[in-house]
Amino acid sequence: MWTCKNLWKKLSPLARSSSTLCRQNARGVVLNNERRLPLVPQAHMSSGTPGSGGDNNLYYLLVGATCVGGGFYAYRTIKGDKERYQERINEIASRPNKVVPEQPITEAPGEQAAETPQAAEPATVAPAEVPAPTPVEFPSHAPYLLIGGGTASFAAARSIRARDPGARVLIITDEPDLPYMRPPLSKELWFSDDPSVVDTLRFKQWNGKERSIYFQPPSFYISPQDLEKVENGGVAVLTGKKVVHMDVRGNKVTLSDNTEISYDKCLIATGGVPRNLQVIERAGEEVTKRTTLFRKVEDFKALDKVSRDTKSITIIGGGFLGSELACALGRRSADSDLEVIQMFPEKGNMGKVLPEYLSNWTTAKVKSEGVMVITEALVKAVSFKDGKVEIKLKDGRLVKTDHIVAAVGLEPSVELAKSAGLEVDSDFGGFRVNAELQARSNIWVAGDAACFYDIRLGRRRVEHHDHAVVSGRLAGENMTGANKPYWHQSMFWSDLGPDVGYEAIGIVDSSLPTVGVFAKATAKDTPKAATEKSGTGIRSESETEGTASSPVASSTPEPPPVPERKDNYGKGVIFYLRDKVVVGIILWNVFNRMPVARKIIKDGEEHADLNEVAKLFNIHED
Ligand SMILES: Cc1cc2nc3c(=O)[nH]c(=O)nc-3n(C[C@H](O)[C@H](O)[C@H](O)COP(=O)(O)OP(=O)(O)OC[C@H]3O[C@@H](n4cnc5c(N)ncnc54)[C@H](O)[C@@H]3O)c2cc1C
């Protein structure tokens, strides 16, 4: 008995000194065996009267067998620990950028020793094989890990911190910049009279106030190295790093340099990349060199330079991005000999969104900004000849230019779907998520990359700033346990310069039946005047602060109905209908009334007279 106990006393510290990975095991071994030891006297006492010879023999037999068995068990456990320990050392040695703990772990001294490879196994792990401690660049673990450094990620980070003030949030972005907003890249930045705008990335909003495109200055963020240490947590950003693999079972991601970072909860907000036309991709290097796909800060900087260095720029695409850039460059051409051409397959600008009469009106507006607009233009071939890019159209027309901007849509970034085993929607693209923006139990998706279930309008994917804000915020809330569905309809807006703009909500698709109600615009019905009044520049900020109270009809006397074909569409409301229910609304030069539109969509009712509904927007008031 004494021998057995002493044997265990000798064995237990050995078991305890095995690797940290096996710490739990080692404790288990000691505990199990300590439990087993008291069983021996218990067995002895129950098997007969103490002192009887036969009993004693049986007792020695039992003690002996237990000691031998226990010793064998302990030997195997320690051997197993050693093997697991060795595996861990090998794994650590093969891991690049492993975070080396700055402070030794301060639990049991025996366990500490085991944590340092050299101390525990000097014979098997030569110092040269152990990676030299590299400067700690990455946290090895982030409770909240957000992939992508765009608007959706930033909104999620903000809402996570609002609900969980001590939260440690890590944003990983493959861009070199801290999170920034994209809308000014095709609008205000182009209208700045500050020649250093490409460096400062500060711009005057339409209301004259200056601001930066960055959501927050660098001082707002903590450094990734400090994420695990800082007392109250914070938001850290790893810039210039791409997540290339997701192990959703192991709760970890791998970066392109093979670094692994584990997480508790993960948001995918990877946005998308601009599409290109196949004819441009096939056209060769000279054309590729002279083509801009516009999405990022660098693209703005590059196009700004091109607009100063070349004589002719052709924008392919008639959507909001192409039309905004056309207007911006058109304005610039007024003071230079730059030629700006815009071409697209539709009959008019924003033809996929606006009803035909309004699309035609918009085309006239873009032309008045100095842009040569070529409608119904299908690009057949692109080549580089005699120092010019030649664009051949299907109907035989030929356009010669110096530079192309392809603004032909977005491809959601879903490369991670494969390794993560996540579903990509076959109709809309993007990661398929439920109404709570959840793809799996601890993975959410927001922004342009999310194909979500809108409990009001069905399955959708939305590529707009305010949606990135709204969905990012919701995902952040749900990552902290809110379990809320998507119901707050996001909006989007587009400005053709400071004088004409629209705000839209719901499904705005020109193939749906529409009803438009217009009124005469006044000087205050412009994007510029609207931002002056609200004091904010990014319109989604002004509108999301508004309350979605019940709309109240205007007390203004009923105006005469305005026919849809009116030539001057000063300001108005366009309703988009599906099965007679309003599923989308455009507020044309009508600003800061989005809560009313949101309420109409949310109610989802049939309306007998949409002129009456239009009154809720007070468009006939001066
Ligand atoms: C020039 C321009 C003007 C716009 N104007 C308007 C407007 O007026 N109104 C409007 O409503 N909307 C506008 N938009 C659209 C709006 O900006 C987008 O809908 C919004 O940016 C989407 O946000 P997001 O966070 O989902 O994606 P993004 O902003 O695209 O951010 C995704 C980020 O993730 C990064 N990333 C992707 N994959 C990885 C990876 N594997 N690892 C690490 N990082 C990764 C990307 O590089 C990117 O930085 C505009 C867009 C552009 C480009």
UniProtKB/TrEMBL annotation:
Residues 145-471 form the FAD/NAD(P)-binding domain. It catalyses: A + NADH + H(+) = AH2 + NAD(+). Pfam families: AIF-MLS (PF14962), AIF_C (PF14721), Pyr_redox_2 (PF07992). GO terms for biological process: apoptotic process; mitochondrial respiratory chain complex assembly; positive regulation of programmed cell death. Residues 475-603 form the Mitochondrial apoptosis-inducing factor C-terminal domain. The keyword Transmembrane does not apply. Residues 46-95 form the Protein MGARP N-terminal domain. GO terms for cellular component: mitochondrial inner membrane; mitochondrial intermembrane space; nucleus; perinuclear region of cytoplasm. Keywords: Acetylation, Apoptosis, Cytoplasm, DNA-binding, FAD, Flavoprotein, Isopeptide bond, Membrane, Mitochondrion, Mitochondrion inner membrane, NAD, Nucleus, Oxidoreductase, Phosphoprotein, Transit peptide, Ubl conjugation. Its cofactor is FAD. GO terms for molecular function: DNA binding; FAD binding; NAD(P)H oxidase H2O2-forming activity; protein dimerization activity. Monomer (oxidized form). Homodimer (reduced form). Upon reduction with NADH, undergoes dimerization and forms tight, long-lived FADH2-NAD charge transfer complexes (CTC) resistant to oxidation. Also dimerizes with isoform 3 preventing its release from mitochondria. Interacts with XIAP/BIRC4. Interacts (via N-terminus) with EIF3G (via C-terminus). Interacts with PRELID1. Interacts with CHCHD4; the interaction increases in presence of NADH. Functions both as NADH oxidoreductase and as regulator of apoptosis. In response to apoptotic stimuli, it is released from the mitochondrion intermembrane space into the cytosol and to the nucleus, where it functions as a proapoptotic factor in a caspase-independent pathway. Release into the cytoplasm is mediated upon binding to poly-ADP-ribose chains. The soluble form (AIFsol) found in the nucleus induces 'parthanatos' i.e. caspase-independent fragmentation of chromosomal DNA. Binds to DNA in a sequence-independent manner. Belongs to the FAD-dependent oxidoreductase family. This is Apoptosis-inducing factor 1, mitochondrial.
